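Please, why this fold?
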Amino acid sequence: MSESESGPQTISDKMRVSFAFGEVGDNVALNIFQFLVFTFYFCVVKLPVLWISLAFILWSVWNAINDPVVGYLSDKTQSKRGRRVPWMMAAIIPLGIVVILLFTPPIVLNSDLVNFIYLLVILMVFDTVYTAVNLNYNALFSEMFINMEDRSRTGKIRISCVMLATIFAFVFPTLIIDDLTNRKGNTAVTLSQYQITGVLAAIVIFVTYFFLLKWGVREPKEFSKDAETALSFTSTIKASFKNKSFLWFLLPTLGTWMVIGITPALAPLFMTYAVGIEDSELIGLVLLILFLSAAASTPLWEKIRVKKGARMSGMVGVVVWAIGGLLLAFSTSFEMAAIVAIIDGIGLGGGLYFYDQCIAEIIDEDEINLGTRRSGIYYAVLNFLIKFSAIANFIIIGIVFSSADWQTYTPNPGVDTIFALRFLMGIFPLILLVISFIGLYFYPIHGERLMENRRKLTELHEQKGISS
């Protein structure tokens, strides 16, 4: 059987597009969170940066428990709707609600302690419901789209949807919120504008996930019995961390997601005070150029993957990304930032492209070795690492801001603070992307090993199809 014929079912274009559309809701939730939460609590709520960092550190404790448990339980779930869909159906409405609640703290009480507790609780609730949706959605990608052709075709649409969501999350708020950093001190107006943004984001989440669940998901039958043969929780964790391919993949995952996270989190402050762009719409325009460039670069990264593999796409991507990010960090005008955002965006496109392709290859090889497809636990570990990257970012931001004497937000920061912003936007990401390059260089699933895995996987799925 040829690769294009392998796999348990025929995927229609309607299902492919509807599935990819789920990326819009997923990324609107995540990117609104990454883009606005730090700026909101630092500049509008005026919570000291060390309080914010402490909330994220404590959140990490819950995160360490929540993600692996949800992934394990998802792999063990048995229902008429399969293993993944019930989790998504249960969590989508709470996810939309909590996105609104992110921007409704008890600010009128004027208490750092109360606002800190609120932030901590809302972080934990957001993490729980987002994990239930995101983990199972990503697990379905590796299970619904088995062969490389399907993954590539669907992956291109997914990246386009990621970019659509990213543009909405990073640009649309700048059209609603006049003063992202609350520089003018009109807290009541700025607060209401953040809350309107949260409501609109929730509507987008509800609508896009409706399309996903209505027309975009169908769990493959050959995996229906895998819930019965799933390993114990301890065994499945041990097996995952004995997978050398997965361990090497964790390096670029952590590195690239830290860069993806810190860039939008600091963009309002960086653009305002380091680059000198005070107009929110112009800040949004720079981000728009960056992410449109990332979307437009997808055919380039696909061409590299076809010729050299997903690993090479990632390696070239992080190099371009590091160069673009460094240039952006030391931009001194809107015009310069807009031009170098093109380079940064092309690199970002490569950094996004390799991720789904490589983790699917890892899950394929794991299924070959164990006979059971354990997508949930792998995405659980990755989800934990992605959220840990956010925690690490906020710890670094807290340390750097404190060193630059910016523990509490005040407009018109000094030279040290501006350099701190440039460091966090350029030099720090450069270090992370070098680490990512090393991880991708030693990532072993490529060439003959990848082709052999494809052959074995086809045989295994034929056997599962017969037995089911």
